[in-house]
Amino acid sequence: PDAVWVVGFPESGIELFRECYAEFAGDVPDLDIVVPDGLIDSDLPGEVDNDMNNVIGTAPSASGPGAEFFASAYEEEYDAAPGVFTAQAYYAMAIEILAATAAGENNGEAIRDRVRTVANPGGDEFGPETLPDAVEAVAAGNPVHYVGASSSVNFDVNGDIATAAYDVQDFQDGDITTLNTLEFGNELSDEDLNAPAADPVGVDEFEAQIGVLMPETGDLGPLGGPIRDGALLAATQVNDAGLSVTVNTRVEDTQTDPQAGISGANALVDAGFGAVVGPASSNVNLQVADSVYIPNGVVGMSPSSTSPDVTDLDDNGYIFRTAPSDLLQGPAMAELARGDTVGAESSGTLYLNDAYGQSLEEQYVAAFEDADGTIAERVSFEPAQATYTSQWSSVLNQ
């Protein structure tokens, strides 16, 4: 193939790319490798011990109106630059704080019915820099239109965001640079605009209880920590403002494992949290939603779960996400691989065998073929394999 599309998470990605460069050095210089958000990690070249100059990818853009303020606030708080999905996590926490304040209680049903009250058009517009002002406006009984750092996130009837932008990110000499931005999606329909958006009740004092369920360890651990921090930053910002509304947070580690995610989610439910930011991965999110959020009436808002299967959950309106569906990311990646940037006429796929990898691979393949490209070998792998040499051999047709 002219290119290989690879989807996975950083921990597996380290060994996967090490073997690629060590075992197939003669083939790699002429091969374009295209990766999605799960492998857009600035630490990866150092871990792999290669500049990875033949790797390019896409990640949801953090180019919303408040992006500059968010980046500055994140760096000041954590002494590090924000990474992929950190802005989406900040947005999810901000929306859940505002929705809980609008509800005046930490009840999942009441919060659910006010997510669009504070996120979609209809009230005065606020952003990251004015988040405390937005909280005060909602506490006073007014709807707001909160516009995040990641984008102007408007939720459709399924809890998905209607439009999304993707940064084209190039690995060059050990660093990641953004080349340009691709935009996909549609405006809100009448059905979307008529989804529940109950009025704020108005409160004098209130403590919002918002959980954070993130992979601090496991395959997604290197990305999960910064995503967690992005969410906590919004709570810190509100608590430091000296308002009559405060935020109580609690973090649970999914370990990038569905059973650990379910355990952590149950702990949050038992502690009275009616809204949670997370989980991160689609495989964990789908199972936590089915087993915990939906039956207990808890709002789950993932900043990074992108599987189209999330849209189709029978969730009674409790499941949202601030990251775009792979129904949008698949075409974005195919446009990158097939278009002028890479210009591949044929592509193989090497993908993680879970809900995230499978659904994104299907969307990429369909879009690549729709653009008159040819898909060669399609090869899956399991997380934390001892070796990936046979998978590379298959996808490279060695």
In short:
With 398 residues, the chain is an alpha/beta fold. It has helices at residues 10-23, 44-48, 67-78, 86-103, 108-112, 115-119, 131-139, 190-193, 221-239, 258-270, 282-296, 326-338, 355-370, 389-395; strands spanning 3-7, 32-35, 55-60, 124-126, 144-146, 163-172, 175-185, 206-214, 245-253, 275-277, 299-302, 319-321, 346-352, 374-381.
Structure description:
The protein is α/β, with parallel strands linked by helices. It is about 40% helix and about 20% strand. The chain contains 14 helices and 14 strands. The strands form 3 sheets. The chain has a 7-stranded mixed sheet, sandwiched between helices. The longest helix is centred in the middle third of the chain and has 19 residues, at about 220-240.
